[in-house]
Design a protein that fits this description.
The complex is a heterodimer of chains A (about 110) and B (about 120).
Chain A (H helix, E strand, L loop, with lengths): L3 E4 L2 E5 L4 E7 L4 E9 L5 E8 L4 E4 L2 E6 L4 E6 L8 E9 L5 E3 L3 E6 L1
Parallel strand pairs in A: 2-11
Antiparallel strand pairs in A: 1-3, 3-8, 4-5, 4-9, 6-7, 7-8, 9-10, 9-11
Chain B lengths: L3 E4 L2 E4 L5 E7 L5 E7 L5 E8 L2 E5 L6 E7 L2 E6 L8 E8 L10 E3 L3 E5 L1
Parallel strand pairs in B: 2-11
Antiparallel strand pairs in B: 1-3, 3-8, 4-5, 4-9, 5-6, 7-8, 9-10, 9-11
């Protein structure tokens, strides 16, 4: 059974810092992995989707990497801004699974 | 143009009532899902439907009954509501069942259910 964890649970940084959020999964037989952000009281916004054959995806200041063999993905945020404050969730789709399994999220606060 | 829309956004109701949450997607996706996000913010799958057919039914009480009248709609009906049902319920869709499609999941904005 796939299990997904995220470290740290919460992170507070000053504006302008580069930061890394971590996602770990127990079963490396994954189909793809998706990073979302969730603003308080809101739905989930898709940030990046990495297929199992890919090693990274980039969108603007965001870069997500995937290392299937070690069961890890990282989300790198460059030059963080207060508007980046949100909860970041990673979700893993296993080869045998029919749905995404979500991690518990990392709550990010970027201070002006 | 909202891709996945849920109604209502907020729902406050008394214990024992029956309520429904509606979900519609205009993306032409084959697969739709219901997820529950509890007070600790964990997102867990409840149901998935592929082309109107039930695929996943996790260990959810049978008071919860999904209904998919067509590929674009997946509604969630809840009977005899209990205090523990209070949570945020998210609808999502994906291009197909097995791959999640090249775009993965698209989520609705959620329905915050409060049972009093």
């Amino acid at each position: 059974k796939q299990e997904v964890t995220q470290i740290p649970a919460a992170l507070s940084v000053p504006e302008g810092e580069n930061l890394v959020l971590n996602c770990s999964f127990t079963d490396s037989a994954i189909y793809n992995l998706q990073w979302f952000r969730q603003d308080p009281g809101k739905g989930l916004t898709s940030l990046l989707l990495i297929q199992s054959s890919q090693r990274e995806q980039t969108s603007g200041r965001l870069n997500a990497s995937l290392d299937k063999s070690s069961g890890r993905s990282t989300l790198y945020i460059a030059a963080s801004q207060p508007g980046d404050s949100a909860t970041y969730l990673c979700a893993v789709r296993s080869n045998y699974g029919q749905n995404f399994v979500f991690g518990p999220g990392t709550r990010l606060s970027v201070l002006p | 143009d909202t891709a996945v829309s849920q109604t209502p956004k907020y729902l406050v109701t008394q214990m024992g009532n029956d309520k429904s949450i509606k979900c519609e997607q205009n993306l032409g996706h084959d697969t739709m899902y219901w997820y529950k996000q509890d007070s600790k913010k964990f997102l867990k799958i409840m149901f998935s439907y592929n082309n109107k057919e039930l695929i996943i039914n996790e260990t959810v009480p049978n008071r919860f009954s999904p209904k998919s009248p067509d590929k674009a709609h997946l509604n969630l009906h809840i009977n005899s509501l209990e205090l523990g049902d209070s949570a945020v319920y998210f609808c999502a869709s994906s291009q197909d069942l097995w791959t999640g499609g090249i775009y993965g999941y698209t989520f609705g904005s959620g329905t915050r259910l409060t049972v009093v």
